Amino acid sequence: MLLIDVPKGWVDFNLWIRNGWGAYAKWFIPVLFLASLFAKLINNIKNRYLLFGCAFMFATISGVLSFYKIQFTSTMSSTPFATFIIVMGAELKRLNSVIADSKLLAYVDFILCNCRYFILLEAGFML
């Protein structure tokens, strides 16, 4: 927020402290409200495949809106992506104990680090 206003001449941090944030984030509350409602509806689905399908449908809608630069009032076009993030966060929270207690995480981390290393070597970076 502060970095956006610095090029416009708002360098004095004390001015920002005294005057507040100027209601720049007034879009956040309605987006969070609608995303929470959609996420609640999606999380009530018992079939996990259907749940993930609905979540990725919201992510796809968000991508299409972003690609074609479609804007709704009060940045409501970010609601599908916020819904996707909320649903995925709830699912990862549910799977947290399974992921944390298994050796799967260590194997995935090892494979991803090695893949990154070989991709960087192939691109010509010296580590």
Topology:
Layout: H1 2-5, H2 13-19, H3 28-43, H4 48-67, H5 79-101, H6 104-123
List keywords for this structure.
mainly alpha, 127 residues, 71% helix, 0% strand, extended
So what's the overall shape? extended
The biggest beta sheet is recorded as: none
How many strands appear in the DSSP assignment?
0
The helix count comes to 6
* Low-pLDDT segments, ≥5 res: none
Level of helix content? over 70%
User: What is the rounded distance between the termini?
Assistant: 36 Å
Portion of residues in beta strands equals under 5%
SSE string, helices as H and strands as E: HHHHHH
Mean pLDDT across the residues is 80
Structural class: mainly alpha
- Cα-atom Rg, whole angstroms? 21 Å
Walk me through what this model shows.
This protein starts with a helix and ends with a helix. It has six helices and no strands. It is an all-alpha fold. The mean pLDDT is 80. The longest helix is centred in the C-terminal third of the chain and has 23 residues, at 79-101.
Summarize the structure.
The protein is mainly α and 127 residues long.
